[in-house]
Recover the amino acids of this structure.
């Protein structure tokens, strides 16, 4: 529990390096955009839950930024794929 | 951040007014993100060509910086939430150390962004160059202002910790400022892949 924030930070850094390498090495294609957006959702959810501390708050407040994140990334996916 | 994870807090950490501001900011940025995504859909070639002029590495560095600053701020909040009447001065001091690292990250973000902006403006690019750069400048410029405001808020929180201003019964200021700073981080987490990576 003590090292919780450290673990979250490491995961965020790893996912950011993954996103950067996709772009930098020009590996980005339509399939990987979906994975990239999924990893973006995971990153955002980790910030919301652990850094903002909403994991310890009642669901009605906890859910708002997560729904926002899911909606925005879904709409970006829709604009990209359809 | 309750020690008993089965008992949920009724309200999010910090002043509720800050959360209203956070929700409004999230809606505002969502409209810009969707404006970008659907405008790109209408002219994919223009957006892909224009995106080549951006420096992905500076976007990447700034993402690492903001995530790390958010971690430092979360550590500062963790420290003040664990203090009691006997050790609050020592814990204020500990929190101030985390905050100074976060402030350094904020300043570095702004320097990297100013360097990127000066390169873009040096190329003669402005809001009316094309739709891609209109969204790029609006989104990153608007976000830049939020980082500036967040840094000012963090600086004030830092000064209060230096004066041992937070006590076991008064941590609302640092929690409010931290929530705002994490929102700034959250917005960049969406902005980075959308503007710099996806093509």
């Amino acid at each position: 529990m003590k090292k919780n924030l450290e673990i979250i930070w490491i995961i965020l850094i790893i996912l950011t390096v993954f996103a950067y390498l996709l772009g930098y090495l020009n590996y980005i294609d339509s399939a990987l955009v979906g994975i990239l957006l999924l990893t973006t959702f995971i990153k955002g959810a980790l910030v919301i839950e652990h850094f903002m501390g909403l994991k310890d708050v009642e669901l009605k407040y906890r859910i708002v930024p997560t729904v926002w994140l899911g909606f925005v990334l879904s709409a970006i996916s829709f604009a990209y794929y359809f | 951040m309750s020690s008993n994870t089965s008992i949920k807090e009724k309200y999010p950490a910090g002043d509720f007014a800050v959360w209203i501001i956070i929700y409004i900011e999230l809606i505002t940025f969502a409209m810009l993100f969707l404006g970008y995504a659907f405008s790109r859909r209408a002219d994919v070639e223009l957006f892909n060509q224009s995106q080549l002029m951006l420096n992905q590495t500076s976007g990447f560095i700034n993402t690492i910086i903001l995530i790390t600053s958010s971690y430092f701020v979360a550590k500062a909040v963790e420290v003040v939430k664990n203090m009691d009447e006997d050790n609050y001065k020592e814990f204020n001091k500990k929190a101030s150390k985390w905050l100074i690292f976060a402030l350094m990250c904020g300043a570095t973000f702004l320097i990297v962004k100013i360097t990127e902006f000066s390169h873009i403006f040096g190329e003669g690019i402005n809001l009316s160059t094309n739709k891609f750069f209109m969204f790029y400048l609006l989104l990153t410029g608007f976000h830049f202002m939020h980082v500036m405001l967040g840094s000012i808020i963090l600086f004030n929180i830092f000064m209060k910790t230096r004066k041992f201003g937070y006590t076991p019964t008064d941590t609302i200021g640092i929690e409010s400022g931290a929530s705002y700073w994490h929102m700034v981080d959250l917005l960049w987490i969406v902005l980075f892949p959308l503007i710099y990576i996806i093509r």
